[in-house]
Amino acid sequence: MTLYNRKLQVAIGGKTRLLPLDEILYACWKDGKTIIHAREIDGLWLAKPLKEVEETLAPLGFARVNHSTLVNLNHVTKLQGHPERYILVSGTHRIDVSQRKYPHIRQLLTQR
């Protein structure tokens, strides 16, 4: 996985572009691909497993919230813990947080 000055190399419309990390809301693993959801562009895919994306982005403010989703913690607007565990990303994207990951996510968010 390649990062250039806090930008991720992605393919958009057959062209390679650099997407600033602060534009990325979250990434998820679906149908054997990592799908990137960004502010202005939705549904970019990377030919990399989510685990590899996580290893690269975790030190830069991203965290895995469940088995298939990695979230940019800078865009989390709400953390709900009971009775359902979820986060809101940019106020509109609801993403479930696993029971096992919830305490770690809560800790990361309170440290910000």
Describe the structure in your own words.
The chain has 112 residues and is an alpha+beta fold. Helix content is 15%, strand content 46%. It has two helices and ten strands. The protein has helices at residues 50-57, 102-110, and strands at 7-12, 15-20, 24-30, 33-38, 42-46, 62-66, 69-72, 76-80, 86-89, 93-96. The strands form three sheets. Strands 5-4-3-7-6 form a five-stranded antiparallel sheet, with helices on one face. A three-stranded antiparallel sheet has the order 8-9-10, with no helix packed on it. It has a two-stranded antiparallel sheet with strand order 1-2. Strand 3 and strand 4 form a beta hairpin. It is globular and about 45 Å long. It starts with 6 loop residues before the first strand and ends with a helix. The mean pLDDT is 91.
Task: Put the structure in a nutshell.
With about 110 residues, the chain is of the alpha+beta class.
Structure annotation, total helices: 2
Radius of gyration, taken over Cα atoms and rounded to an integer in Å? 14 Å
SS elements, strand count = 10
Strand content: over 45%
Average pLDDT confidence is: 91
pLDDT < 50 stretches: none
In the sheet with the most strands, the strands line up as: 5-4-3-7-6
Helix-strand pattern = EEEEEHEEEEEH
Helix share, percent: 10-25%
Major beta-sheet overview: 5 strands, antiparallel
Shape from CA axes? globular
Instruction: Note the gap between the termini.
Output: 26 Å
Name the structural class: alpha+beta
